Amino acid sequence: MNNEIAGIDHVVVGVRDLEQARLAWRRLGFTLSPRGRHIGQGTANYCIMFASDYIELLGILDPDDFVQHLDAFLVQREGLMAAAFAPAAALEELRAALLGRRLHPSEPRRLDRRLELPEGDSVMPRFSLISLPAQETPGLDSFICVHLTPELIRRTEWLTHPNGALGLRGIHVLVVNTAELLEPYDRLFGIPQVTTTDAVVCVQVGQHRILFSTPDDFSTMYPKLDIGTGFPLPGIVSVEFAVGSKENTADYLTRHQIPFEEMPEGSLAVPAGEANGAVLFFS
Predict the structure, then answer these.
(1) Phi and psi at residue 58, in whole multiples of 5°?
(2) Looking at the predicted structure, is the pLDDT value of residue 279 above 90?
């Protein structure tokens, strides 16, 4: 099945204090690109760029302006709040492919961001966003992000990270029940891309994977991680990064006194309290 979605473009982390978040993620060993301010909105971001995907730290600068639903999210918690998918085709082909799968994509919505460069100038990356109804991506707040000016958001010096991170592997979403997820994600991504192991659902999206499980199954998979009892469902609990060397990443975390645990399958996990509510896996 060809739905013209190539993978995950970026993952959004909602934060209450954008400047404190910048310092926290820099301590974690990430290089952040300069601050971007969304035009016509009260939000701004810092991004952690990789060659083909990225993390967006999203905060509110002007609460009286339009902030989408970030304010409502932050009332409950900080953390991973949404995933943006990358298109594999032009906008018209993308929408046609989704309509052909009996899905209901929105009309494109324009988004501009003023990126404040370190040399004092600014550039204006532009995007076109497409959404699907919530019932067509159950459990996951998501949208499709079409980059109209991709050359403006990456510089070589922004792509190298002291902790050794090379890019995103995927995310883990906590839900009440996984059984209701199969049909919608089969339709969106194709039956071969959606597999189940016990009650854990894995959706393969290009080179990325999205895991869905209940909180109890997450705790069974990662018994050393405590996510507490009040995690709002559904919600993205963790993001996984590919690294060049787990030994080098562990050395960086140790030298900077960042707590982490080695998981049964060998990944390194940094608890949510170190990363604005997001559990970080390095593998």
Answers:
(1) -115, 125
(2) yes
